[in-house]
Amino acid sequence: MLSSAYPIAPLVGSEVIEETRTHQLPTFHPISPLIDLLRYSVYKESHNFPGFFEGCAHPHAHTLYIFDDHLWTRKRISKGLHSKAIMFAFGNALSRARLQYGVDADIDLETPIVSQGVATDGASFSFAVVQLNTLRLASDDGIKNMVWLDADNLLYDDQYPQDIKIVKSNKRKKTRKWYIKKMITKRDPEVGCQELNMDIFRKFLALYVHGAEH
Fold first, then answer.
1. Tens place of pLDDT for every residue, the chain, 214 residues?
2. How far apart, in Å, are the Cα atoms of 97 and each of 93, 105, 151, 208?
3. Residue 166: its pLDDT value, please?
4. pLDDT at 36 (0 to 100)
5. Rounded to an integer, what distance in angstroms lies between the CA atom of residue 128 and that of residue 84?
6. What pTM value is reported for the model?
7. CA angle 145–16–213, rounded 5-degree value
8. Phi-psi region of 3 (alpha: psi -120 to 50; beta: other; left: phi over 0)
9. How would you classify the pairing of strands 167-168 and 124-134?
10. Which burial class, exposed, middle or buried, applies to 200 when counting CB atoms under 10 A from its CB (0-12, 13-18, 19+)?
11. Which residues does residue 196 pair with via DSSP β-bridges, in sequence order?
12. Is residue 123 a contact partner of residue 154, using CB atoms and an 8 Å limit?
């Protein structure tokens, strides 16, 4: 996580925030928004805080970086990266707001809190910026919180996972499992990962220096 001495300034002003009152949020009704998610770790809200103690010189979370290479071990689901970037950026902004206004605060923020998130599996990058405008999370009415997402940014045009399993068979249509042999487990440096996309670095740098003072 990158922290800063000053918070990131809001991306949009009060006029644009007020326009979100008329925005209709999507719904899963009659399905529960939690679907089949289970509660397996419950924290005391009064003990939640953004990780910075009083007197810290850089008490504001600027950008959260999330790395998840497990997406390579199964069928890649790019939306998993998008959701992680948004979830952690929103969670940090929420904890900072509750630390400032109290865990039971149910108000619209006079000064929105902005947090950034970068999620990657080493091959694809998702960039998210969250602006927390309100703590009224129980209702769909009123002003809304906002998120900007730039997803599916591939680091290379030609790429595949670091660990590759190449096998040989006895050339039968139905190869027996015991005959399949692992040949190599590492990527051939002569193939794959071609044509580096420098726009990824530019976007990464843009978030890194966002709000920096000269």
1. 898 888 999 999 999 999 999 998 888 788 887 777 777 776 665 556 666 777 788 888 899 999 887 654 444 556 678 888 999 999 989 988 988 888 888 999 999 999 999 999 888 899 999 999 999 998 888 999 999 999 989 888 766 554 445 455 555 555 555 544 554 445 555 555 667 889 999 999 999 999 887 4
2. 6, 9, 26, 22
3. 47
4. 75
5. 9
6. 0.76
7. 80
8. beta
9. unpaired
10. middle
11. 156
12. yes
Rounded Cα–Cα distance for residues 85 and 81 (Å): 6
Largest CA distance in the chain: 70
The tokens 């970086």 sit on which residue? 65
CA distance 120 to 107: 33
- 133 phi, psi to nearest 5 deg: -100, -20
Q: Are 36 and 90 in contact (CB under 8 A)?
A: no
pLDDT of residue 140: 86
Give the residue from 209, 17, 15 showing the smallest Cα distance to 113: 17
89: left (phi over 0), alpha (psi -120 to 50) or beta: alpha
Look up residue 102 and give its two tokens: 């109290």
Question: What length does the chain have?
Answer: 214
CB atoms closer than 10 angstroms to residue 14: 12
Tell me if residue 192 falls in helix, strand or coil.
Answer: coil
Look up residue 152 and give its two tokens.
């599916």
Tokens of 93: 């902004």
